């Protein structure tokens, strides 16, 4: 059954799905136990110091790889057989084969995390992660290589454009559209065989659902939520994969503020599935151990050229801190109320004068203020990185993109909302030597946020896939006979 272009699945067929029984019970166990990355041995590169052993964002991704006995890790993935059966003659199920590959990947990443100064052996590659912008460069590099080797994504074919299999690749929701459209092209990671997939993509666009289902001015999101609920009922009836894992190995993606709200219409989608969200707000149910923070980017025309231009030299960055944006939530109100027209060093505008260029201001500033609006995400973070301006994150509950592998403290400043009156004092307290290091790291981290057509290794598309890969590594799906 497919969705039409202007309406979603009929709710009249839903009672049928609730009567279905599934005979195979699948257990989902989480490998994550430690909430910190402090067990890592971090390699140094050149004169850069190692990141702090404590983490501002308690993601559990890599720490879990070393939390289990190696032999048990491999043995637990073997199918139990009777004494009469010969293990060598036993054929693994598809699920067991997938989990066996993931177990080997976990072990490989764990071993790489123990080795310091490993990256020099990989200089034949076009880019090798190194330096303090990473929590552990060796572990990340090994994880990325393992992902390229074994990770496979199945995209459900049900549903029709424009609400499914299509997204807008311009304006504030551009990253959502670019990801959906790239998965539809199938150039990377996609498999047409659902039995060999590591994860399953639910290819709906919340932005497009709002365009076709939402009645302007009503603030009623029920129709969108029910559409998602109907879709999951359809794929759970046609395929066994949602039911066998209760959604743990499925993922959705949304850059619209309503993405988290829409996901709440299906309990297992909200609580179990991997949700890739620009609105990565922990106060609204975002769980970093299973959900993925997604970069927000404002591509007004969808043009991918000249996004990163040569930044101004430090000597020409005469503004200490800069922000321009409309009143949009309490944080920005406090920022504007405290600093607007108050100090030439901290330039804050709710609207730039016509003669001023926004991007020139970015390139002329040492620090770029990135306060949350009504929602926590802001395209200013990526804009600052592209302008080689050190981002200053001002938020209460935001989890920055790719913070499972990136050490944000090495190239950004994080200021609590209550410290907004002290912004100048905090930034002036950063020495010139430390600032130069941070600004150099901003240049290094740019490659991870740049969109390309076609995608390039380590860019925003592949980094998003890698974040999904890490969440999948954090769980193990197995049958009840184990």
TrEMBL record:
Keyword check for Transferase, yes or no: yes
Q: Which GO terms describe its molecular function?
A: glycosyltransferase activity
Principal location listed in the UniProt entry? Golgi
Q: How does it sit in the membrane?
A: Single-pass type II membrane protein
> Which compartment or compartments is the protein found in?
Golgi apparatus membrane
- UniProt keyword Methyltransferase present: no
Q: Which GO terms describe its cellular component?
A: Golgi membrane
Q: Which UniProt keywords apply?
A: Glycosyltransferase, Golgi apparatus, Signal-anchor, Transferase, Transmembrane
| Exostosin GT47 domain residues | 148-428
Q: Which protein family is it in?
A: Belongs to the glycosyltransferase 47 family.
Name-wise, this protein is Exostosin GT47 domain-containing protein
What is the source species? Answer: Pisum sativum (Garden pea)
């Amino acid at each position: 059954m497919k969705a039409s272009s202007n309406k979603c699945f009929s709710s009249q067929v839903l009672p049928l799905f609730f009567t279905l029984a599934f005979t195979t019970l699948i257990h989902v166990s989480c490998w994550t136990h430690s909430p910190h990355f402090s067990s890592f041995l971090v390699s140094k590169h050149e004169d850069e110091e190692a990141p702090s052993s404590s983490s501002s964002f308690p993601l559990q991704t890599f720490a879990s790889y070393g939390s289990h006995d190696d032999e048990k890790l491999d043995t637990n993935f073997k199918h139990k057989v009777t004494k009469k059966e010969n293990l060598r003659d036993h054929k693994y199920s598809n699920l067991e084969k997938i989990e066996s590959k993931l177990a080997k990947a976990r072990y490989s990443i764990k071993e790489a995390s123990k080795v310091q100064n490993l990256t020099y052996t990989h200089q034949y590659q076009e880019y090798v992660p190194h330096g303090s912008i990473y929590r552990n460069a060796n572990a990340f590099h090994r994880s990325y290589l393992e992902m390229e080797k074994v990770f496979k994504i199945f995209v459900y074919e049900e549903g029709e454009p424009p609400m499914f299999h299509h997204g807008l690749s311009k304006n504030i929701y551009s990253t959502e559209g670019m990801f959906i459209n790239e998965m539809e092209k199938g150039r990377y990671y996609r498999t047409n065989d659902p039995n060999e997939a590591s994860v399953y993509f639910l290819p709906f666009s919340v932005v497009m659902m709002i365009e076709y289902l939402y009645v302007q001015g009503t603030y009623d999101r029920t129709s969108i939520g029910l559409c998602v609920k109907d879709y999951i009922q359809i794929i759970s009836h046609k395929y066994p994969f949602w039911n066998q894992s209760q959604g743990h190995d499925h993922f959705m993606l949304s850059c619209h503020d309503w993405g988290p709200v829409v996901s709440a219409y299906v309990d297992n989608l909200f609580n179990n599935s991997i949700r890739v969200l620009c609105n990565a707000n922990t106060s609204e149910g975002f769980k970093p151990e299973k959900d993925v923070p997604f970069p927000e980017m404002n591509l007004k025309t969808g043009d991918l050229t000249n996004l990163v231009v040569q930044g101004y030299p430090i000597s020409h960055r005469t503004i200490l801190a800069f922000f321009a944006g409309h009143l949009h939530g309490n944080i920005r109100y406090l920022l504007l109320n405290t600093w607007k027209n108050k100090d030439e060093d901290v330039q804050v505008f709710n609207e730039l004068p016509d003669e001023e260029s926004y991007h020139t201001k970015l390139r002329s500033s040492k620090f770029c203020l990135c306060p949350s609006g009504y929602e926590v995400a802001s395209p200013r973070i990526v804009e600052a990185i592209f302008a080689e301006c050190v981002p200053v994150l001002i938020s209460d509950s935001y989890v920055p993109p790719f913070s499972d592998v990136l050490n944000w403290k090495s190239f950004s400043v994080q200021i609590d909302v209550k410290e907004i009156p002290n912004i100048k004092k905090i930034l002036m307290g950063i020495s010139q030597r430390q600032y130069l290091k941070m600004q150099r790291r901003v240049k290094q981290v740019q490659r991870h946020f740049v969109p390309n057509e076609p995608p390039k290794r380590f860019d925003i598309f592949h980094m998003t896939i890698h974040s999904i890969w890490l969440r999948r590594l954090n769980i193990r799906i197995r049958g009840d006979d184990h």
